[in-house]
Amino acid sequence: MDRDQVATRWRGLTVTVRDLPLAALVAVAPLVPSLQHQGTQLGDVPHRPVDALAVAAVALQSAPLAVRRRLPAVCLALVALGFAVDQVRGYHSVASIALPVALVSTAAHLDRFRRTTAFVASAAYVPLAVALDRSGAREQVSGYLTFYLVLAAAWCVGVWLRQSRTAEAEHRAHAAEGARVAERTRIAHELHDVVTHHVTAMVVQAEAARYRTADPAALDETLTAVTDTGRRAITDLRHLLDVLDPGHDAARADPRAPAVGDIAGLVEQTRRAGQPVELAEEGDPPASAGSAEATAYRVVQEALTNALKHAHGRATTVHVRHGDEAITVEVRTDGTGDRSPAAPGGGRGLVGLRRRVDVLGGELSASGQPGGAFVVHARIPSGTPS
C-alpha cells in the first residue's frame, strides 16, 4: 500500500479516531524518564510524588484530546480541570501540555459561543490562581499574568487557524462558482452554435422548398436535406446532453457523435442548404481535436450560419490553415445576392466566439470589406488540449 492510499484511508477515518494518537501520546509522555520533571510549574508549588490522583489528573488532561475537534468545549473543560488538579497538588506532569492544545483546538473548531467560552475560561483562571496561592505558591502576580498571556496566545493561534480555514473554504466556494459560471457560459455557446446553425439551415431549406413544388425531384431533394439537417441537429444535441450527464463516460462515447474537426462535413451541409461554399484546407489537422480545433470548427460554423442568415445565395469561401503554432481561419462572403436575412439573429454568436478565441490567446475579427464582402478571420494558437 503506497503513501497516497494510506493518506486516503486515514482521511476516511472519523475525527475522534484520528485524534486518538495525540491523546495516547500525551498519556504516555509522563512515563518517559527524561520527561518526568518537564511539566508546567505554575505557582511553584512543591513537587509531590505520583499517586492515584496524579494518574487521574493525567487521564483528565490526555483522554479528552480524542474529542478536541468533535466536542471542543467539553475537551477544554476536562483538560482545564485536570490541569488545575495537577498544579494545585504539585504533580507538575508533562501532560499539562494538553491545556494549550485544547485551547487551540477549541478556538479553531468551536462553532458556537466562542466568546462566552473564552470569557468563562478566563474567569476560571482567577480561582486557580487563588487556589495555588493558598497552597503555598511563591508565584508573583506578574508570573500569573505571563502564563495567562501564553494561554491567550494559544487561543489566538486557534482563532487564526479558524479564520484561515474559513477563508480557504470561501476561496474554494468562489472558485467552484466561477467554474460553474464558466461551464454554463460554455454550454450556452455550444447550444447557440448547434441550434442556430442547424435551425438556420432548415429555415433556408424550407424556404427554398416553396419554389420547387413544380419539380417533384428537386422538392424531394430539398425536403430530404431538411430531414438530414434535423437529424444532425438531434444528434448534436443528444451528444451535448450526454456530456452534461454526470454519469457520462467519455471512453464509451457514441461513435455517431459529431466530429468537431469535420469542417468539410460542415461545408457540405451548408451547400445542401443552398449556400455556394468553397473550402480550402492547408496542413494536416491533428488526429484528436483539442480546444484550438474545436474553436476553429465553431468559428467556421458561426460564419456559415451568418452567411445563410444574412447573405443567402452569395458565394462563400472557407480557408483553413493548420500550422505548427496556430490555426488560421478565414470565411469570406461576397457582396452579391439576396440581402434579406433568412432568419433573425441575436448577435450573440460572434461575441461568444471572440471570448472563446481570447481565452486561448488568439484573435478574431469580423468586418465588412470594400465591395460589400464580409470577412471573418481568426488566428487560434495550437497545442491547447481539450
UniProtKB/TrEMBL annotation:
One Pfam entry name: HisKA_3
Transmembrane portions of the chain: 141-161
Secretion signal, residue range per the UniProt entry: none
Coiled coil: none
Keywords of the record: ATP-binding, Kinase, Membrane, Nucleotide-binding, Phosphoprotein, Transferase, Transmembrane, Transmembrane helix, Two-component regulatory system
GO molecular function: ATP binding; phosphorelay sensor kinase activity; protein dimerization activity
EC class of the enzyme, as a word: transferase
Domain Signal transduction histidine kinase subgroup 3 dimerisation and phosphoacceptor: 183-247
EC number(s) per entry: 2.7.13.3
DUF7134 domain span: 16-164
GO cellular component: membrane
Domain Histidine kinase/HSP90-like ATPase per the UniProt entry, residue ranges: 294-381
UniProt entry tagged with the keyword Transport: no
Catalytic reaction list: ATP + protein L-histidine = ADP + protein N-phospho-L-histidine
PANTHER family: NITRATE/NITRITE SENSOR PROTEIN NARX-RELATED, NITRATE_NITRITE SENSOR PROTEIN NARQ
Protein name: histidine kinase
Annotated organism of origin: Cellulomonas cellasea
